[in-house]
Amino acid sequence: MRYADGGGLTAAGRAKREAVRFEAAEMFKQGVRPPEAARRLRESAYAWHAVWRDGGKSALASKGSGGFPCQLNDAQVERLQAELDAGPAAHGWSEDQRWTLARVAELIHGLFGHRYIPRGVSYLLHRLGWSPQVPAHRAVERDEHAVAAWRTEQWSRVRGRPSSWARG
What's the predicted TM-score (pTM) here? Predict the structure, then answer.
């Protein structure tokens, strides 16, 4: 299955799916055929039936979360979070205040000696609660009050109003 946010099932979600598979195993044990089990559970049961037939109920147990396990332990993840909170300038990237995937990968390699590809960094940051954001490009000298005043006073005159919304 694919999920919209790029992640997988949570532990609770895996447990719920496992319970459905175990329910299917009980049906198979009672002689219920896969099409009937699928109708009752609203799930495809043919693959589960084959796994159950070969390995029993224990073969239907959850295998845990998918994907490659995180290379960082809990203490390293906490330290990474603290280093990210310190900002890019604290690590030598002073030209702008943006964490890019390449910069975070370089930071991880420098701190812990683990190499991550950008997609792996993205998964790790998502797990830590970070989201991709593009900051608004605004001049340091920008005067918000002057911009707001211009919008209210000048913009309607510059833009003009059509006399009619009718075509032609």
Answer: 0.50
The torsion of the CA quartet 93, 99, 103, 105, rounded to 10 degrees, works out to: 150
**Which residue matches tokens 């992640």?**
7
Residues 72 and 108: beta-carbon distance below 8 Å: yes
Closest CA to 60 of 71, 50, 70: 50
Neighbouring residues of 14: CB distance < 8 A, sequence distance ≥ 6? 62, 64, 65
Instruction: Give pLDDT tens digits for 107-147.
Output: 999 999 999 999 999 989 988 888 877 666 777 788 889 88
CB neighbourhood size of 122 (10 A):
17
Convert 85-150 into a string of H (helix), E (strand) and C (coil): HHCHHHHCCCCCCCCCHHHHHHHHHHHHCCCCCHHHHHHHHHHCCCCCCCCCCCCCCCCHHHHHHH
Residue 47 exposure: Cα atoms within 13 Å on the Cβ side: 4
Report the alpha-carbon distance of residue 48 to residue 21 in Å, rounded: 7
